[in-house]
Description:
Blueprint: E1 36-40, E2 43-46, E3 51-54, H1 57-60, H2 69-81, H3 93-103, E4 110-116, H4 119-136, E5 144-148, H5 157-162, H6 166-169, E6 180-183, H7 188-191, H8 198-216, E7 221-227, H9 243-254, E8 257-261, E9 285-288, H10 290-293, E10 300-305, H11 306-314, H12 329-344, H13 347-366, E11 372-378, E12 381-386, H14 402-412, E13 415-416, E14 418-421, E15 430-434, H15 442-464
Parallel strand pairs: 3-13, 5-6, 5-7, 7-8, 8-9
Antiparallel strand pairs: 1-2, 2-3, 4-10, 9-10, 11-12, 12-15, 14-15
Helix pairs in contact: 2-12, 3-12, 8-9, 13-15, 14-15
Organism: Neonectria punicea
Family: Belongs to the class-III pyridoxal-phosphate-dependent aminotransferase family.
Keywords: Pyridoxal phosphate
Amino acid sequence: MAPSRDDNHLPAVTVKSQHGEGHLLHRSLAQKPSMVDSAHGIELKLASGQTIIDACGGAAVALIGHGNEEVTQAMVEQARKVSYVHTQAYTTAPAEELADIILEGNPYGLEKAFFVGSGSEAVESALKLARQYFYEKNEPERLHLVSRQQSYHGNTMTAMSISTNQARKAPYQGFCYPNVSHVSPAYAYQYKHDTESEAEFTERLLAELDAEFLRVGPEKVVAFIAETVSGATLGCVAAPKGYYKGVRALCDKYGILLFLDEIMCGVGRTGTYFAFEQEGIAPDLVTIAKGLGGGYAAIAGVLMHEKVVDVLRQGSQVFNNGHTYQAHPISCAAALAVQRIVQRDRLVARCAKMGQVLERRLREELGGCGTVGDIRGRGLFWGVEFVRDRASRETMAPGVAFGARVQQIAFRKGVAVYPGAGTVDGVRGDHLLVAPPFTVTERQLEHICRVLREAVEEAEGCLRDESECGLA
C-alpha cells in the first residue's frame, strides 16, 4: 500500500525503488552516472575517490570553473533579498544589470535580451519571436524555417524540428513542426569535394541555400537558423570563409531573418564574446546559454537586433511569450557574477590565447594517431574527428562506437571529454569535444592532450584485438 501523506506529514524517504534503484530518472536506465561529491576549478571529485579533470566543461558550460565563491556569494545574497518574482508585474536589479552588461552600447545592433531557463527554451522563444516579427509586419504567410543538416538546436519540439540529430529525433517523427527544410552543413572536411577550392565550396553552399529559399518561396520563409560554430552534433566545425557574409546577403535579399544559435559556441568560447564577430556579420537574433551562467544556474538568453525590437515597438509592444521562471532573480544574479568575472579578468582574451596552446598540443599529441582524421575549432572549443582511413576519410562502422571508447578510456585515466556519434550523416562518424574552462592552465592542457593521446592509442589497440578490450 502506498504511504499516506497530508500537508503536515510527508512519507519517509524511500532510498530504493522496487527494482533496487533510486527514484531519479537518469538519461539512461542501463548506465548509472558517476556520483560527484564536490567540484573546484577544473576538477570533479567523485564519490569513488577519483579526481576527474573536466576537459569539456560538462558540455562547454563551466566557463570560469567550478566552486567560485564570488558567484556563490552573489547567489546567496540575491536569495536573501528576493528569490522569485513574476515578470508580468515585476523586475529585479540582477536581471536588468545582466542585460545591460551583455548589451552595453548595443553591440552589432543588438538591443534587447530575453532570459529563460535553458538553451532549448531560448531557441523556442527566438523562433516564436521571429514568427511574431512577420505577424506584426502583416506577413502571416511566413511560416517556414530553414536550417542545416547535422545541426542541433534543442529538445523542445520546434527546436528539435529544426535540428537533425537523428538519435534524438527518432521517437518523435511525425510529432514535430512541419514547415521545416534543411540544407547541407558548412562542413568542409566531409562535404567539400576534393576538386573544389574553399571559395568554390562556399559558393556551392550559398547556391543551395538560395535555391531552397526559391523552392519554398522566399515570401514564406521566416528565418535561416545555424550554429555559428557547430556544437556537439558535428564537433566544433567553423564555416568556410565568406559563408556567413553570403548567408547574410541572401537573407537581406529576401527579407528573411538570420538567427544564429550560439548556445554552445558563444559567450567567449571561440575567443571572441560572440562567435559571429569572426565572420564580419551581425544576426537578427542570437541565442546564448551554456557559458552565460557558467553552470552555476539554469539560464539562457535571446538577444535581438533593434530592427526586430522596432517592429514590436511600432506594433503590439508585446512579445507574446512568457515563462514562469523567466529572468529568475537568482539565475540572473549568478550569470551577472559570472559575466563580471569574465570582463574583469579578461577571460575571453585568455580563452583565445589558451586556445592556441590547446590547438598546438592537440596537433602535437594526436598527429601520429592513425584514426585521427581532423582537428578543428576556435578558442577553447575543439573537435577531434575519427576515421577508419585518413586518405579517404572513410568512417568506422557505427557499431564500433570509437568516440565513446576514447571517452571511456580517458575518463578512466581521469580526464572527461565529450563524445559524439553520427558525425557525417546522423549514422556514420565519430568525434569528441575538448572545451575546458577559460581558467585552464597550460600545464593542465598538456596533461589533457597527453591523456587523450593515450586514450586514442588504447582504443586503436582495442580495434586491433577486441579480445583484449573490455569495451567491445
